[in-house]
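Sample 1 of the test manifest.
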Amino acid sequence: MFDPAQLAALSAVLRAGSFERAAQMLHVTQSAISQRLRQLEEQVGTSLVIRSQPCRATEAGERLFRHAEEVRLLEQGVRRDLGLKTQTAGDADGWPTLRLAVNADSLATWFVAAMQDIEGVLFDLVIDDQDHSADWLKRGEVRAAISGSAKPVQGCDCRPLGTLRYLATASPRFMAQWFEADGVTAASLGRAPVITFNAKDRLQARWAEEALGITATGPSHWLPSSHAFVDAAIAGLGWGMNPEPLAGEALADGRLREVVPGKPLDVPLYWHVSRSVAGAMKPVTDAVIRASARVLRPIP
Amino acid sequence: MFDPAQLAALSAVLRAGSFERAAQMLHVTQSAISQRLRQLEEQVGTSLVIRSQPCRATEAGERLFRHAEEVRLLEQGVRRDLGLKTQTAGDADGWPTLRLAVNADSLATWFVAAMQDIEGVLFDLVIDDQDHSADWLKRGEVRAAISGSAKPVQGCDCRPLGTLRYLATASPRFMAQWFEADGVTAASLGRAPVITFNAKDRLQARWAEEALGITATGPSHWLPSSHAFVDAAIAGLGWGMNPEPLAGEALADGRLREVVPGKPLDVPLYWHVSRSVAGAMKPVTDAVIRASARVLRPIP
């Protein structure tokens, strides 16, 4: 088996991006880090880290990094099963780090509550669109993902979590300026500025098409932040699809209005988890299901 | 001069990521988009768009894309100077799109107010760490950036905006669990879980070093979202440097405490703007200065 201290050195360099910070993380000298990494590279027979600013993994380094994470996670499962005390001390090797892909709106609405519910794990979150988060799992870069797709990823289990309700929202002034004269028509919707999260975000276009049968939306702002997205809608910069739990307060106090009342867009979310660590991940899966159930609606 | 309709087709394809959606954005047929792009490519004598999923720019395409954006921005300046009505109609070519690099914490605290203050512009925001946002400007990928560095970027003007105050914060329960026994010492801080935005984020380490003279922080969660960062601190997952305007409410009602009271970290922020469009950008610069002054503290 690979030497745990050497694997820890590799993980720390790749997480921290430099030998100096890795040494600080592990409370050892920089030369101890260099030496452990060199020994690991000699054993594997190939370079593991590209010594750039910041340091990056080679393909082999990335594979070993994931391996180290999986072993720590499995070990925590063993400790739990054997009734051993899980490590609470703060040395970086004590708690496994769990790399997950989460869509931004889940993180902004319910995912922190799930994290709060899981003991003895460090989270390393990758944020991506719900239509693309499963790609991280396919590439083997994360252990689990929250995705809008029910399509199973090879080697992974998939279970439904619920739907996140989105509402097309805008400020009252924006509504008056762009939609008062003619209502929400293909023409007015083609003129009114829209807010889009990023090039992957199809929610605005989907809503226009599914709710109104309109295929073209207007010129777009690009704003890759869930909270800023709500703030920008309140500020009157454009209309956009906001998650109900985030927009609810502003809708209740009148800072936001629904562009067309009674036309929500429900986006189902699924939890995909790598089968190789599904056992060790059980407490995480349970926490995710509990926290999501408090905010998401049942999938019809 | 390049044909505006052809440049608009290029911009739309690169923004929307596909010919189909570009056609929807510009309210023309997909074959019109193809034709305009092909004509532009023939004129330039090289390929501008890589026909992938999503479509990406070649080096020449990226250069022309930036050119189109600059011309629209300059034209808006001319319209203002000549007292012409700036375009309000919603065709995608009517409003210039302004690509800016903004640090996440500015976007979460004051930048939306600046955006609200600027008329007739579409924003395309790139979010990056305040220590790296200026790199986007150096690479010519944005027209302006909010950066933590006062170092002028070649061809750009730089002006100070103020400092964003960060406080080392954690939940009362977290404080009791990790710091009650021994206080905040090198040993306890080396054990206590910390929250880090991403590998570029040095704020936690800087604070430990500058405020306490401690060079090593504990094992880290990685959480690249300003609001989730505050939420995770409130949830007791770790301690982290939160902007005072975001953490203020939770500090006031007791959900958060300062790890060491009276030890803030003030991070200066600067507005860097490309000189080639500085004139056209004047209203944007003015709005950024006004909005930042309401939240940031004066730079000492």
